[in-house]
Specification:
Helix content: 25-40%
Radius of gyration: 18 Å
Structural class: alpha+beta
Number of helices: 5
């Protein structure tokens, strides 16, 4: 028996729909994230970032990721198809600006004294005004220190990083099959 497969291009609209479904569930209201006990001021910073980045782009949606040509080698093709779940949605110019501003803010806080535990990193992020939910902060492995992956409320990009010196913090779009944290496993 012969099976025929059809490639479906992954578009920004498709990624957005998958992300919305993953984040909200089917016909369910989104779960409320725990409120962060933050010192006065983070809301002002978030508003400043939004105002500063409002003119960063034309407001156009993020461009769809270019469909990559699969390799001719059958084994390499299979590998590429099986790792498609690691694709990230693109960020608009405004989303990139906001994400980079938040990443720089977190990186600066980590430069003072890198937290050695997930609990310390959670406290630092909450102190900066970021809502940290279950699973957003994880213990590190191999000397990387604890790590985090956060969805920035009101702006959309993910900010992900590790706390070990030098701290690595970067902004990116959500993964097609896993929100802000890179999904484990494949297919």
């Amino acid at each position: 028996m012969t099976y025929r497969t059809t490639r479906v291009p992954l578009t920004a609209a498709g990624l957005a729909a998958v992300g919305a479904l993953l984040l909200t569930g089917c016909d369910a209201a989104p779960a409320e994230r725990p409120k962060a006990a933050a010192p006065p001021g983070p809301e002002v910073f978030f508003a400043e970032v939004a105002a500063r980045c409002a003119g960063a782009g034309s407001g156009a949606p993020a461009p769809a990721p270019a469909e990559q040509e699969l390799p001719a080698d059958p084994e390499a093709r299979k590998y590429a198809e099986n790792h498609g779940y690691r694709q990230q949605a693109g960020l608009s110019a405004e989303g990139r600006c906001r994400g980079d501003a938040h990443a720089a803010r977190i990186r600066s806080a980590l430069a003072g004294k890198a937290p050695g535990t997930a609990a310390e990193l959670t406290g630092l992020l909450r102190g900066l005004g970021y809502p940290v939910g279950p699973g957003d902060v994880v213990d590190g492995a191999g000397g990387t220190g604890p790590g985090f992956a956060l969805w920035i409320p009101g702006s959309g990009p993910c900010v992900e990083g590790t706390s070990a010196a030098p701290a690595r913090v970067e902004a990116h779009g959500p993964y097609a099959e896993g929100g802000c944290r890179e999904p484990k496993g494949g297919h």
